């Protein structure tokens, strides 16, 4: 009986070892190939807030939620669209207390030939200079594209600054880095 239990344990370990070997030999090279096929991305973006609507939450002083719309430009220096300038439109939903908080932004870059890249960005903002400026940073994910960017995916990080309070508008810029692939 003891040898039968020992044999079952050995069989179980053999299956686990075989599975790990399969994953290492076959799946790791596939994921490495996808990463190697990814292009590095670098973009400098500028934007102007064209509309902002806010609501005082009322639970603590200075707690505001809102939606803002922006227009601007994306200067693509690396990756897909390198050397091109695209128009940028975006909509943000934000939740801040005394200027500090989080936001989600949906962005569309439109290139001269009509091709687009769509992005979802998540970020955090911290007021500086008594709220006259905001330091912002976060992550982004490329969610798709049209035309020559159809099927594009990507991800990365960004850092920037907003001039003027988020609640009343303002202008801003950010430097974006990451990767993109099809």
Outline the fold blueprint.
Elements: H1 2-37, E1 39-56, E2 63-78, E3 85-97, E4 100-110, E5 116-128, E6 133-146, E7 153-163, E8 171-181
Antiparallel strand pairs: 1-2, 1-8, 2-3, 3-4, 4-5, 5-6, 6-7, 7-8
Q: How does this model look, in words?
A:
With about 180 residues, the protein is of the alpha+beta class. It has two domains: about 35 residues; about 140 residues, SO1590-like (AOC barrel-like, Beta Barrel), CATH 2.40.350. About 20% of the residues lie in helices and about 60% in strands. The protein is built from one helix and eight strands. An eight-stranded antiparallel barrel has the order 1-2-3-4-5-6-7-8. The longest helix is centred in the N-terminal third of the chain and has 36 residues. The mean pLDDT is about 90.
CATH architectural grouping of the largest domain: Beta Barrel
What low-confidence regions span 5 or more consecutive residues with pLDDT below 50?
A: none
Q: Output the CATH class name of the largest domain.
A: Mainly Beta
Fill in the CATH topology of the largest domain: AOC barrel-like
Overall structural domain count: 2
Strand tally:
8
Helical percent range? 10-25%
Q: CATH homologous superfamily name of the largest domain?
A: SO1590-like
Radius of gyration: 23 Å
Termini gap: 56 Å
Describe the biggest sheet? Answer: 8 strands, antiparallel, barrel
**Shape descriptor:** flat
Biggest β-sheet: strands ordered side by side in the sheet: 1-2-3-4-5-6-7-8
Average pLDDT: 88
Number of DSSP helices? Answer: 1
Order of helices and strands: HEEEEEEEE
Structural class: alpha+beta
Residue share in β-strands: over 45%
